[in-house]
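Minimal example, chain plus flavin mononucleotide.
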Amino acid sequence: MDQVNSFQGRRIVLGVCGGIAAYKAIELCRQLVDAGAFVSVVMTESSKEFVGEATFSALSSEAVWSSLFAEQDPIPHTRLGQAADLIVVAPATARLISAYATGYSHDLLTNVLLATRAPVVICPAMHTEMWEHPAVQDNLKILSQRGVHVVDPEEGRLAGGDIGSGRLAGTERVLEAMRGVLSSSTPSGEVRGDEILEPSASGLHGLNVLVTAGGTREPIDPVRYIGNRSSGKQGHALAEEALARGAAVTLVTTTQIATSPAITCVSVDTAQEMHDAVMSRSATADGIVMAAAVADFAPSQIATEKLKKSDGAPMLEMHPTIDILAALGSCKPNGQTLVGFAAETQDVRENAERKLKDKQADILVVNDVAAPGVGFEFETNEVAILCAASEDRFVPLTDKRSVAAVVLDVVVSTRSAQEPVPSSGE
Ligand SMILES: Cc1cc2nc3c(=O)[nH]c(=O)nc-3n(C[C@H](O)[C@H](O)[C@H](O)COP(=O)(O)O)c2cc1C
């Protein structure tokens, strides 16, 4: 989807809070309108201390909204929230983030955020001390676990001449994150009369999806490790595909591959670090896709100094690493879909069937990594998808994004077979 089409005809609510970076929302507003979006600006009272209402009224698609009790509409909070295809808050203050996380809806913007089913992109901006405060970080964690997309701030010059993290993400990064969310092609909260249409059943809109990618590295000494040939490309393709389908995506990865800004990336190295990162986030995940190649064994001792060739070849004692997929399977909450990956070189089918059962996964994606063009390092893959509750699928050799699409199709169909479609709750 090109950049203009992403926003063409989409209804965007732009929330602006009271911080120095409020002036940057003017450029964001202008670019969205230029790209064909219908932009409704909701300003907090504090934001008017930083930028003029008249500027936004002139640049956006309608007069600025800021009061819950507006004359032009008796219930602006529900109309704006229901009609939106996407809500972006830039800049988002620590105050707004806290109010949104707790549901404290004393102003129009927090009411709009609570009265919507549209995807929400939050772009925090504040001084480094505020940004790093556990209260702010905890509130953001709550929001991202609920499916809110957070575009982390950047490092740079802050108000008052300080340098540090907390600077509002650049306009292009914010737009890119919004494009990623909108390209899910599942417009949320589309209104026809009084009826709110549910998003497409083929998407993952509103779900939290946790993906792992890459091969773990088990250190021997400060410079050497035991690793594997996994490139992480399949895991990253799964994360991007899940994002495109409207999920809030957390990617636990060992790689440095660039990702969409709307994906929350957690960098890890070892199997233990990957275990900790995954287990601490697993309870709130609707779907977990374990595409990483996690080491089965790790050195029991890690030398504190680089091992010297002159000392002779070391005898490495190894111990088995913790089995993350089995750990997830043993405490899987109701409604969670667990997907495991298996790279096999022999008895592919038998090993995969056993793994699916033993690890209590719902789906197991298996590839024969001995076959040409398949699995590690390649741009392509060929997989069989084994399902505990439905028919297996085979995906012949194709690019990894296409494999990701089929895997997520199977996730969606598994979930819809398990769950009744929720009513709108009106
Ligand atoms: C000069 C100045 C700059 C500020 N910049 C920020 C900021 O960048 N981020 C932030 O979270 N709060 C900032 N604040 C504090 C907020 O303005 C304050 O918490 C306010 O209540 C936020 O209101 P709002 O969230 O309704 O817009 C700033 C305050 C002042 C006086």
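The first helix runs from residue 3 to 7. The first strand starts at residue 11 and ends at 16.
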